[in-house]
Amino acid sequence: MSVKLFASALGAPEGPISLADGSMYVTEMSADTSCVTHVDPQGRKRVIRKTGGRPNGLALDGDGNIWIAEAILRAVICIDPHGNELLRIDGEGADRFLFPNDLAFGPDGHLYVTDSGMVAGDFISGQNFVENFMGLSWIGRVYEIDPKAERIVRRIDSGIRFTNGIAFDSANHLYANASFTGEVYRYDVFGAGPPRRELFGNVLQPDNRPVFRGPDGMKFGADGRLYCTVYNQRNVTVLDRNGNVADRMMLDGEQPTNCAFSRDGTRLLVTEVSKGQIEALPAPCAGLTLHAPRLGLR
Fold first, then answer.
1. pLDDT digits (tens, 9 = 90+) for 196-207
2. pTM, whole model, 2 decimals?
3. Is 18 part of a structural domain of the chain?
């Protein structure tokens, strides 16, 4: 598979969003960047907003506003396309955010968020995990936010070992993954009764490399398959409709963090942190159209 470079010299990129004109939004998580960045089709960069924390996942609403999972500031922040902050949601009490890292709008206009389950200072030193990070007491969670009410309305799940990527399929089931186990979970969030965690699949390769590997950001294709970046596995692992591994799309860099389908349906764009770049792969299909509600914020 031919991998091309879309952009380089980015500070630990994440949260890719493809735009109609061929440009992108991404976050830069490194301490010396810590920003939301616009990247044009030629790979030229323009900072939209510096957050001062560790901006991670992004989502775009129907008004063109950008929603940020700000992991170190422990908040979901909405900014307009010029970088002006419109609102900030922190959670409260037992549901005060710990490390929000990915988010996706649902068909109901609500925002669904993964929270990895620990405050950054307890498991990160600089840009790296502390020793024995997998042995810590993780309480990863999945939340539903009503953006108009500016509050969490439901905790969907908890007790996950580093909750990470999140996505909806065409049947409006919600998916989230656990980086430490490689598992992808499915939830019927619009069914009767509380949503129940269902094991959908696992993206880890069966090998004995002594290095942490785990799923990160993910998106559905129009083919019904789930495209999941796997950190330190150097690929996008593709799960079919039954949760079985259908393909592993190899990358240039070892540490992909997230992906987005180009709007013209020809490329899968992958953020990668070890080389600080966005890689472009030929896409086998278009991406499933993302929900983008019009919220009428200021």
1. 999 999 999 987
2. 0.97
3. yes
